[in-house]
Batch of 3 targets.
Target 1
Amino acid sequence: MDLAVVILVEVLYAIASLVLISAGLAVVFGMMKVINLAHGEFMVLGGYTVITAVGLGVNIFVAMLIVAPLVVGLFGLIVERLVFRHLYGRMIDTMLASWGLSLMMIGAFKMIFGNTQTGVTGPIPGLTVGDYQINGYNLFIIVVSLLLLAGMLAVLRGTRAGLIARGTMQRSDMAAAMGHSPDRIYMTTFAVGSALAGLAGAVMAPLVGIVPTAGAGFIAKAFITVIAGGPSLVTGLATASGAFGLVNQAFSFLVSPVIGDVALLVAAVVLLRLMPKGITTRFFRGRL
Amino acid sequence: MRGDARKDTLVVLVLGLAMIFGLPLLIDPHQLTVLVAYGMLALSLGLIWGFGGVLCFGQAAFFGLGAYTFAIAGINIEESTLPLILAVLIPAGFAALMGAFMFYGRLGDVYLAVITLVVSLILFRWLNTTAGQGYEIGAARLGGFNGIPGFPILNVPGRPDLPIWGESLYYVAAFALLIVFLLVSWLLRSSFGRIAIGIRENEERVSLLGYDIRARKTVLFAIGAGIAGLAGALYATWAEVVTPNLFSLQQSSEVIIWCIIGGLGTRFGPILGAAGLAYLKFQLGQQSGIDNMFIMGLVLVIFVLLLPRGLAPEIARFWLWLIGANRRTARRRAPRAGGQNG
């Protein structure tokens, strides 16, 4: 019974971390069709922001939930103006430019923070369930990712800004004809996606130590989750994370964590072969 | 047409031989050997991406597979001729399987890129965990993160006691590159190559003409992987150690950067990009002020923004002028990266 609870929390945590890692990319890639290969480095930037801010004496929750998204969002805004703005609609070129950006960011991290692992301690103590110990921070991540999904759904469906953003992504010429500036909407959307990446990196920072090259570990998972999710942003994110998180944890328990990661990647390749346009083209069609 | 081909071959031979014997005067042959191996790797991606329109993000996987095959087979056979052949055939076979899986599933460009990337990541992760006793192929231990050291290097065929190294390895590698280059040129002139270029330009039209694009793309993909495997074997015999880093994201990214900067849709561009950037990296490695990766990234961003066709179109114009080809072909628009669906 206790073991079942522990396993349930572990599985939920795996799913939640996938949601977190992929949320920013879902906005940038899923909505804007910008393949941002620097997504992992955006997350690492979020992590470093938290570490720096905590070092300066900021409360860790403020640093994670407010400072990091703001900093990374602002960074995304600058990068969008300088680079991505010129490349919309040229998918492969965007991919290559963002790869260059990711290399630059890794290089910059190495120069600024040194090529060593830094981290902050998790602010939440562990819980005891029967004979087992659960990392209390895992529960925090589950809560954050649930709130994130709910928030994204609410913004996209419930607010005027969400409606305009969705409309612009579908037909930017129509949006322009109705008096909205696609240029500005693209800019804002990219900044929001970057901010989400920053949030993810910040929240993950206490769990995984941050090294300059840590982004590579996130990027593959984020991409396959978003691509496997398909066109529906929130539903796709939730279902794909659910499927992959389950596979990952099942194999981690049965064999080893590394095999769990490999199984996740294999599952993704097979899933893409079966449903090349993602889960939500077959199930949950037309949802958000 | 036939005259053009003969002229082209002649110029390639003359220029190639001039470079093979001229460059060691300028650059240390030991360094040149690895530049040649990288050049061949870039040529392989240049073939499938620049001419076939297949953007493979995991070309390094075939490079690494070739290197590992050479090392493992070398330890087991203790002679290097068969391992060298296997180092071409095994990556090609693996790519044929992967290609069949992807192309027959009619995956789009982006998904293709992601799947190839993921496959090389899987190999990278898995090889890093093979440190234990249980992971052996014949007499070769995979060795996990440390890789496989101490396998027999390239030798004169049939004479394991006569290893090829140092300057002579450079000449073997350089002639191998020249031969591969000529074979690639021949392939591109053949009807197979022409149809491959047709597929890059307009997949739908070519398939409506009755060609089986899935099979053709798979074969082209396998050929590219075979060349990458040969490059891997040359690298392995140069480095005398193979590690999982050959499969890493950085290695894959570098190949793509070489192609972009050298120029897609040309045969020589990727080689130029590879040799030039790898040489630049050697030079940068000797200074410590600015991180290497930062400069590489900056170069890539600037090229994508300002010079997306790369350096080769400029050089190609000179080339065509040299062989006296029709001026109009020189000014024809170079293909966009990534083909139609991008």
Target 2
Amino acid sequence: MFLFKKIKASALQMVLVVAVIIVILLFAFISLMYYQKKVAIKHSNFSESIYENHQVFNYLKKANIPYGLIDSLDVFSNVTITKKQWGFFELISVKTKKNRELFEQIALIGESNTDKKALYLKNNNQQLFLVGNTKITGDAVLPRLGVNTGNIAGVSYNKKKLIYGKIEQSETKLPSLKNKEKVLSFLTSYRNDSLERFDLEEGVIAHRSFIKKTLTHKRNGVVNIVNSSLIGNIIIESDTLIRVHASSKLQDVILIAPKIEILNNFKGNVQIFATEKILIGKNSQLAYPSSLLLLDDKAKGTIHISKSSIIKGVISYLSNSKTANYTSQILADNESIIFGEVYCQGNFELRGSVNGAVYTNNFIVNQSGGTYINHIFNGVINSEKLSKEYAGLIFSNSSKSVAKWLN
Amino acid sequence: MVKLIKFCNLKIKASSITETIVATTIIIIVFVIVTFSLSNVLQNRVENDTSLIESKINELVYQNRFEKIKTPTSFNEGKWTVNVFREKENDVNFIIFEALKIKSKKRISKKIIANEN
């Protein structure tokens, strides 16, 4: 029956259908391979771009580049670098481009000293006296007359050794600070950059990327920062006083005013520039890289670091005044801890701990109604506890390193 | 056969000998083209695959970071010759990791700033 049935021919038709299916499959497979390759190239360009970005940052650790915008470097092509001063630190933004893949990173750059000292006390022809629980660990550069044990109100030095490290002789001047000119030029010239103003009200939330224009708030009169969250590229300036309450969250922000008060229990990361007074309240914690700078030519200003506060960064008191005074210009109270460096062109009263280095004209202690010149009472200095990656004060023999990656 | 056709519920129509020959030729041509293009694509992919030598270069960069290789150095790695050497450009010392394919002269290189500690 089957043999006699008339069946129409169609082998060619079927072959064409099969051929078309095969071609479609082949096309799909080849395009899959093509797109896979394209994605792989894109990925490789992007990772090259990231890699080159890191290389540029490594290069910048040693090379000195001018401020402003740089389109290309001799050793790297397709690189755009923007450098400006951000308070105590340099802010460097590096854009690298590989074909179409762009990668940008911003970092706060500080400098780390190659020879880390624990203490540099200017040669003021006086001995340094250690009293009570004082302990100095690390190399110390001291006046010609050296160091001795002292006694305040019946309490005397209770350690076996005076300095737990090497002793060298100091000069009659503190090592000159390269940051000073940079910071002064930043404070006078930052207004010339393109800025955007904003109103600082209670409870304001402002997050500003460093890629965008700087947000500023300037007010004549007292500025209270309450319940606010200010993060990033923000500068707040007042002509009298800035008071930061613990309810506020500040990160990478710069505060400029004659007097600045950080109230008790505050936690954040700020750079503070004042001319008369800086007060850090009890139990406050300033994260790295924070900086406190008092520019005081009248020799009346003070930086007061209250009990149990922790500051990670740079504390400096700069003054050109040569009149002798017997008050403390920087006071680090009991149980306060400083991770970083203290640079004081005045009298430093150390009752807490400095895990890092101290550069000072004089030490002073006000205790039991008396004033003791060049005494340290229950103060601890330990340069070994400071991280190797720390970047802060800039002297002549220092190399750059990234203090913080920003966004 | 009838059972099979019924079973699969397919209706394949018969065709003349000429048609069958033409169809067979077409399908052979299609298969040949497909085989050639696929083998070409896959061969290219295998030949241009530099992932092994790239990971070797990354390994060398990592070793250099911890000062485990001496520069300059040169060695063969399969079909590739690897050279590691220093170069000074604008007062900056660079270490160049370069891999050269012996036959095709294909070149892969990575340049890093020398760590002078």
Target 3
Amino acid sequence: MWKNLPLFPERASALAWQVDGLYFLLIAVSAFFTLAIFLVILIFAVKYRRSVHPHPVQIEGSLPLELAWTLIPLGICMIFFAWGSLIYFQEARPPQGAMEIYTVGKQWMWKFEHETGQREINQLHIPVGADVRMIMSSQDVIHSFFVPAFRIKQDVLPGRFTETWFHTTKVGTYHLFCSQYCGTEHSGMIGQVIVMEPTAYQAWLNSEGATGNLASDGQQLFQQLGCGTCHRSDTQGRGPNLAGLFGTKVMLDDGRTVTADENYLRESILNPGAKVVAGFKPIMPSFQGQVSEESLMALVAYIKSLSQPQQASR
Amino acid sequence: MATAVQTVERENYLNSNYGIKSWLLTTDHKRIAMLYLVSITAMFWIGGFFAMLIRLNLLTPTGDLVTSDTYNKLFTMHGIIMVFFFLIPSVPAVIGNFCIPLMVGAKDLAFPRVNLLSWYIYLLGAITALTAMVTGGVDTGWTFYTPFSTTYSSTHVIGAAVGIFITGFSSILTGLNFIVTIHRMRAPGLTWRRLPLFCWSNYAAALIMVLGTPVIAITLLLVAFERAFNIGVFNPQLGGDPLLFQHLFWFYSHPAVYIMILPGMGVISEIVTCFSRKRVFGYEFVALASIAIAVLGFLVWAHHMFVAGISVYAALVFSLLSYFVAIPSAVKVFNWTATMYKGSIRYETPMLYAFGFIGLFTIGGLTGIFLASLGLDVHVHDTYFIVAHFHYVMVGGMVMAYMAGLHFWWPKMSGRMYPEAWAKLSALLVFVGFNTTFFPQFILGYMGAPRRYHAYPPEFQVLNVLSTAGASILAVGYVLPMIYFLWSLRYGELAPPNPWNAVGLEWMTPSPPPTHNFDETPIVTWEAYDYEHQPQEEVTVGH
């Protein structure tokens, strides 16, 4: 048990340094205040002990002191607030063109699917030096995707997509934990993130030999479910044409405008009446309970793929 | 053998009446405080027993002591019992119940029968929750996150939820009683500015009890309804929203942290002034800091949800407000420290616990600043860093304060002195044991060890073993007072009315006080903590 006693997690993402920097600053400031308070109490406790200081001097208080120890800590806190928020905002904004990993959490495993169709369970192979965006949802309860070496964590919810991203900087194998308590085998819902050299990653992709990919699975489903009868590839359909839809602003029949992102597509499949596109009737049936979480991801990936040429031209 | 001179025992609240009935039907706030003391002590040992099993299981990375299902039930029941059945009632229902009427110079609380009712409700809630635990347990975590609790858990969720629901009413009634008592029953001359800070902080906590508890009651009822009748409130498959639960749950459960810590802060204000023989430094600031904490405490709940999938702008606002709520707590720590300046300091057990409180609460509070910081919280959320942080606040802070208060007011409550040397030893053991248990967990947390794990990667073992070792020291530190307090009931020296030479009204009546508290209603003509005008007594008691 003594063989291996790390006291600090590895740093394997671009953001890890920033998080650690803020952590070190906070430790320094906290240590300063803790020691200062301990020291002052110790000095008072010794210097003013009953045996040498039998007659206390009554002091009411001091407004300048009160203001000082209200405003100075508040000012220092604002530095932490600003720095912490800057990191958080970076975490919330994945860069354009990041590779996407579709992730399903379920009791008690992680399922990943690469854009090129490779699937894995509780292991995630990714290249070093890449931006990776995780698009995640849960099939049952709330889970949380946590890779300490990347300093990122994001809850994975049933009923919607959540996302997070990271930029890998170091080849290695890192812990993947589910950090939101999810039932009996919560502590078994763990895995590995394997960061590889790009060439090794390519070799791994080839050796896995995917049959089709997520978007093509989605296309098959799209046909099986008969979506195409209304969502035709011209303007004559009873539903909107989906080509080029993803990522654009959509005008709704109640006057609102929403961006057609993954969560919008998802909601429109499961609860089509919630946001109806202007000029169309709310006639689409709900697919709630008819498509699994993975099928939903495939459908969303397929609809996204219909916008690919446009994305390439950007 | 006890050959102490037996004076004719005067009548007091303990000997005025004997028999089970005189206790179970009492409306005397002092007796009800004792009923609470016995009940929450029982709950503390049950919760502590679960904690010990948790720590023992974590000695090995593979979690060999219990199965994962049992482990999940253990941490759930540990959390439920300690939060709802020990910490929330601890200082208010025991020390507050006993001391507030005495401190304001009243004969009793405003509604004595309601006070007794609150204890029966507490008991009913506790029995309900314990029944759920004995008949199979519950495994949702004390946080009851949906949809796990409403749909997926196959344990006794409804029983535990109903137990907490019921107990909430006892909390509301106690809070109501305190608010009305402090408003309406203060002795002549006892203005708000002369009120002991213990009353101020219990008043602030009572506001939260009355305003916040109904929200957790509704939330748990909705969980029970969704579970029993498939009403879609939280489960997305039924059309609900799982995050709605988290908002509702933390809307109460974050302020509940302040229900737990505020009364403890009040205890510390009483003790630091008494053992420094000084008026408190910056009375208004300490008093108003309690109110500020109570108000701001309602506005920070979503800092528990920074990685849950809320909007980044909402997170920004809640992060900012979380820094604001930290400031009044810091102000209190600074004022307590300044109170000692040029004092005349004694180191009896209550003061040792108060030192411990200030030190541990400072660490607990400062690590809270880490968690308010968005980018850092993402990494440490739901790890052992959080576990360490809230134990520093709840155990290092609140339980230390509760122990400080028990030792401080024990002579008043029981009429007996406890053995000082043993008490000092136990204070030291608690301090050392606590730090050994929980400091390693900060390191574990930053390394990424997730909480609520029955088994863990082997590289986390050394720190876990250290933590378990510390927990055993801590356990001894808690067992000792249990023994010597009981021992003192029979063999302890008789306590004088004012063993610490303190200035509160509660010390101006005999120990233990008569049933009606004061022979004459006191008239207050002095400021709080007026140690200047109180004659320095030469005789200190009993050690």
